[in-house]
Design brief:
The protein is mainly α. It has a two-stranded antiparallel ribbon with strand order 1-2.
Length: about 250
Amino acid sequence: MNAILTALLIPLAGTVLGSAFVFFMKRDMPELFQKTLLGFASGVMVAAAVWSLIMPAMDMGNIWQVTIGLLGGFAFLLLIDYITPHLHPNGGQEGPQSHLSRTTMLALAVTIHNFPEGMAVGVAIAGAVTSDFSTASAVALAIGIAIQNTPEGAIISMPLRTAGNSRLKAFVVGSLSGVVEPIGGALVLLLASAATTAMPYLLPFAAGAMLYVVIEELIPEASQGKHSNLNTIGFAIGFAMMMVLDVVLG
């Protein structure tokens, strides 16, 4: 039980650590640093989706099950994005019109996109408990998402500080955005007994949701303006690091 709780909380710890950057940095995060972090986070998430979720799902089921689960993950996040008013870290608004404050809408965006990451960890843990999914792979996934969450926490808290919020409020909001991850993981674990036969669908579903975040949020933001090559470099480093982590621990 302690091991499961630890695995669920690892991604949240990454978010809290990243949000704490607001206490040590100026009001604006340097653009070059932000692009590199966004690319790094993208690489970690793509590698985690492929190595920790899609490939194990292929071993458990067939290509059609994996395809259905993957597309289902994309569709789920697309629907949530469509029906929920939220603000992207770069300022763009999506979803229906709303009179919510900028801070609230930004928090909604992060919450929306952190939830599937928590689900992914929960699915991996459930797989380790109920099927042949490796416990080490589940831990590797949790660590990988925590690594990704560290720059993401900074990318969220710093704009909140720039918008005029206090350092403490920016840190708290950034940290709270990660609370949905252990909640999402716990919800999946509550259904673990019924999830054994559904693993070939659930693992790629979580992967699809994570990949949606990368395609919709991280890569477009990091590719804007100058120095987009830093995004590519960060992506390569993040992907390689997560791949090595998964192979070594798995």
